[in-house]
Structures are given as C-alpha cells and as structure tokens.
Design a protein that fits this description.
Low-confidence stretches: 358-365
Strand content: 15-25%
Mean pLDDT: 93
Largest sheet: 9 strands, mixed
CATH architecture of the largest domain: 3-Layer(aba) Sandwich
CATH superfamily of the largest domain: Mur-like, catalytic domain
Radius of gyration: 24 Å
Distance between the termini: 36 Å
Number of helices: 17
Number of domains: 3
Length: about 475
Amino acid sequence: MLPLTLAEIADVVQGKLDGDADPRSRVTGPVVIDSREVAPGGLFAAFQGERVDGHRFARSAVESGAVAVLATRPVEAPAVLVPDVERALGALARHVVRKLGTHVVALTGSSGKTSTKDLIAQLLERWAPTVWTPGSLNNEIGLPLTALRADADTRHLVLEMGARGVGHIRYLAELTPPRIGLVLNVGTAHVGEFGGQDRIAQAKGELVEALPPAEEGGVAVLNADDPLVRAMESRTRARVLLFGESPQADVRAENVRLTEQGQPAFTLRTPAGCGDVTMRLYGEHHVSNALAAAAVAHELGMPTEAVATALSEAGTLSRWRMEVTERADGVTVINDAYNANPDSVRAALRALVAIGGQHSDRGDGRGRRTWAVLGEMAELGEEALAEHDAVGRLAVRLNVSKLVAVGGQEAAWLDMGAKNEGSWGEESVHVSDTETAIELLRAQVRPGDVVLVKASRSVGLERVALELLEGEGQPR
C-alpha cells in the first residue's frame, strides 16, 4: 500500500482518530478484513457481519502488527472511526489510485471474468509490476482491498468488476477510474436477478461509459463476436479496440483448433503482428478469453510475439476453474465447480468431450468414457427450467457417456432434458446430494474415464471432485 499517516487516512475517509491513535503513525502494510491476515504496518477494517463482528478482534489485530483499526465504534485499540467501513474503504482506494497514477484495467462480463483476469495478470506481470484481483473478489469490498495493495512500484492494476444489478459497476468504476475497460460478453448468468438480458447489457455497459474520452487515453476493449457487447461502442467516448474471431476484430484468432488433449491452439493476429499460441488451459472457450487478454496487453505496449508466448505458458491462478488433474489410474477429473451458468456449462461440456476424445465407446468405439456431474445453475429466474432442460439435452447431443444430476428440482430438470432428448436410460441419473454422487462415482468410474464437475457455487459440488482426487491427483 502507498504509505499514509493515520491523520491522512482520517482526512480521506472523513473519520476521526480514537483510542490513543497517533496521527503521525504510518500505515505501510496491507488493508485486511480478516484479523488472521494482519501484517506489520497494516490496517484492519472491522466489518460487522451477520455472524461475526470484526470489532471484537480489534485488539488481536493490533497485537499482530496492525497500526490501527478502521471501525464504526470505539474499540480496545487505536482506531479511525467512520460511519460506514465499506464506504471508507472505497474512499481510501479512490485516493490511493489517483495518487499513484497507475494504469487501471477493469473488466466485466457474464462469464469468463476471473479466467480472463488471470490471463491478463500473467501477461502484464511479465511486462511491468502488476497487481490484480485475487480469485473473484470483485465487489464493493474486494475491489478496494485489491486497489489498496498497489504501491509506488505498481505499473498496472487489473480489476475484475462484478454486478448484481444496474448501477453496481458504475459505483466500482467511480472508486477506481479505469483507463482501459474490457467487456467480455453478455450472457444469461444472473438473468433472474437482473430481470432480463437487456438489463445485463445495460449494467455491463456502465464500464465503457465510465472511461475517459479517446483524446485522454480511454480505450474500450469490446467483443466483436457478441452483438450486445459490440453495440456498446455507441455508449463510450473512448477509442474502441475489438477482439474476437470475426474478421472485423483488431485482435483476432485464426486457424483455431483443439489439440488431442483439448487445449486451444490458434494464430494470434494484432495490429502489430502475429504469433502462434498453444494454451495450457482446456476448452475452446478460452480462445475468447485469450484474445481479450491479448488486446489489453497489446494496448499497453506488449509485443505480439511476447503476448503469444505468455498465453502459451499461462496457467490457472484461481481454484476450481477447469482444473484438470489426472489420477494414477488414468482417471481425469475436471474441477470446474466454482460457479456455473448456461454459457459456461455448455463450454465445459464441449471441453469435456474434447478431452475425452471422439466421444467414447457409446459412439464409434474411440476415446474415453466421459462423465458430466452437474448441479443447479442459480439465479436464472423464469428461465431456470428451460435452461436446465437445454443443458441436459446438450449432454446427449455431444454424446457424453454419463450424466449425474445432483440436487433438487433443477437437477431433475437436467435429468429430464437428457432423457427427453434421446433414448437415454441409465446414461442419466438424478441423485439428491453430493454424498450419493460420490458413492456412485466411486463404484462406477473406471481407469481412463474423464469426469467433469460443475455447478453454481452455492451447491458446493467441488466436494465431489476433491473426494475423487484425494491422495491420487497429479495436475496435468
């Protein structure tokens, strides 16, 4: 973090010092919201949640090295008292980012945000000191905490921005004004919460509306292959840079293909040249993510050949997102259980089939048996039945060997879709919980099979993958 005295912090957040806080004391370490993560010289932000009140841990935070506590009431420690800790964090982040003058890259989209952010981070880190959002901490608390990790050496700040409704991204962009704004796609994730895909597009487009005009360096990086994203060109004053497989894209992929292992390969073409890419990640959907990352890196001056090399060497930074691990007996487990929406599940199913190779012994006798262990896709509103039914049908059309639908009504719709699409019987099964799914898989999975595990985060389906891999996994 940029070093600040407690007096400066109190002034920025419009708070007051309390508990013998020395106005000359300097905060030089990270700002954290978990007292167990306090480092010497840091600042502990005490949030009062439904189950845990951070104010109770103020003394232990200071004993662990925190200079002071950001709090809403007096505590047994030096403190900066504010009416609202969340708003204070936001104000502090805004102040630090403006004072540092670092290049801020912000991205949003219905799916692929975290994977793309991880790719951008791995590219830019090779070019200059970079700070990026850890995991999916992309909300009103996670974004300021990430921004406050930047210091005087930070050249690039890469921020993932999530939204639960219209106005959320606008607020986040006000906290950390971006120069480059990237919109990946407008899908059906959270369509029930937003109230329709048009509302999702409205919310995601707030990012490009927040960019500075072209003459001040603002750049909107937009997906040329997504009509709802392409239409955002009219909503920004920034210069537009298009990415995609479309011939109209400024940064595009040519000769796209999958390796025998299901990893994407293509020729990357930018306005500055071209380079060959063979990714370590799995699934053709990563081509779009890679192009988005390449467009950002190109805009920040990274040579095309260096971008292609970095994309070919990039891995997964965030857990439970297309983590492909092979057991000693040849069973491959794909843990993609962090979250799920219709677009990402379709992409994951196609990746499963690609990794399995020519579908399985249900088709032409080549390849490996493939298992899709799927659960609820949350927040789909009135579209829930149709979307789950469609995913079940897609599993049949892709010739997945086995579908295990885990959970309640939504899982029943997955199973129904599969059985209504073709003559499936035992190829699809509906089980009520993860324990039953684990027992079934342990009994029936055999060496050489490929197992995909995917559902919305609330389902907790990662337990299935972790149980299958316990003590046996070797990452590929």
